[in-house]
Structure prediction request, 162 residues.
Amino acid sequence: MGKAWKAFETKTAREIDGVRNPVSGRARGDVGDVENDDLNIEVKHWDKKLPRYILEPLDQNGSSYIIFDDIVVLKWSTLKNIYSSFGTVDLSNSQSCTVDKKLPNIYLDMLDQAEKSAEKSDKDQIPLVRYHTKYKRGENDIVFIRLDQYKKFGKYFGIWKE
Prediction:
């Protein structure tokens, strides 16, 4: 596999003004792969493509995010834009859709890992997963985040209105 995953974690850290936590010297689940004061991110760098029913609503409906039960799925470029703009992004006209399917357990397990890392942190961080399919552009990566955490993120950055 080489060092591509390491470089990708470093790129993720740079994109959110965070730090990459090296694997050496930490136990699995102690800290996320990448973190800053606000976010605790598990970065997954896989060969496996995501199911179409996850990707199609984001691509075809023009939705900013989709909801599976209590999990929000959005593109990394959307999250990064919100984060870097700090409240100046207008998503009031953005669309969302709810999908009547369950996410496969593998993605839920990834999110559980991110949540455990965030719980161990001394910061009040929002746990999420950045899912990167190898050989694809990073802007199209997918983010998994729990709905309550997405609302917290949105309120903090001024984009979520109840």
The mean pLDDT is 79.
